[in-house]
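Issue 218. Parser rejects a valid record. Input:
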Amino acid sequence: MHSLSIEQINQIKKILVIQLGPVGDALLTTSYFGNLKKHLPDRKIYYLIKERYGKIIEDHPQIDQIIRIKEGRGWLYFWYRLKAIKAIRRECFDLVIDQQNMPSSQQITFLSGARYRLGYEDARFHQAYNLKAKRGPLRYSASRKFDILSPLGIQEEPFHLYFHIGNQAHEYIDHWLRASAYNPEQMIVISPGSPKTQKNWDLKQFARLADLIQTRTNNRVILLWAPKEKGQVETVAGYMETNPIKAPPTNLNQAAALLSRCKMLICNDGGLNHLSVTTQTPALAIFGPTDPLVWSPASISPRHFHLHNPNFDSSQDNSFGITAQDAFHEVERILKLELR
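Output the parser choked on:
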């Protein structure tokens, strides 16, 4: 089945969206929730996600309930998966949207007991679905998420990404800024870390770029890091000739609060770049092996930019064929645009 009739759509009351993770994909999937609610008002929308990523979608205005699935190895993996499937079956969903489209989510979808099980027709185990969508043309991933809604008669419409920043996160960052006497209007955040090494621009290039910013503009550089990225930040700071500001330890909510106050973000391709869309922070992302057509927000946000050298073989090294000077020229251009 490739589409539902109006009568069948009207019978849908409870919807489960599955996107188990990671950070960026979980955030990008929320792109269509506002439009889903607009076209299907008064429906309950549930979201299934791995427990460690749950905070990404907390307090989302269009999500009625979050179902968190615990992670484990060996028999714990199967136990937690079984508990999640039982919880989903108890809810009696009319429609499950498998945005993950991986064997792990397809198993849950197939066993959900839902009347309609929606996924992409080109998925490896597409037999798990009785309602199938075609993928549209390549474009920014948040926009492309709309493709899965075509069997419901919903097409892509203007949207924005949403992330709730709690009051405690704002207070944490404000306290740090006040105690350190930093002016956030003159702060450029650089996040040199990435959990995927193939996406990580050369740390020496990040260090040179930070030095250029601090010697040729009136801005200071804040090095932002996730818990597992502290070593990368220490390495960048060690390469630098000027003194950067090292951000305090932050969780994702606190990092978003910091981005919402600062002048600009410079980072690798990853979840933080998408997070900056929600805070409307100007951003420059350095791309290596991934395709900016799919992963750069530039197509939907006039304040987001990227650098990418498509002719460079990123398997050679992590310079990605982009120098610190190249990036600095782009930073200068973005800062001038922001002044206008």
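Fixed in the parser; the record now loads. The radius of gyration is 21 Å.
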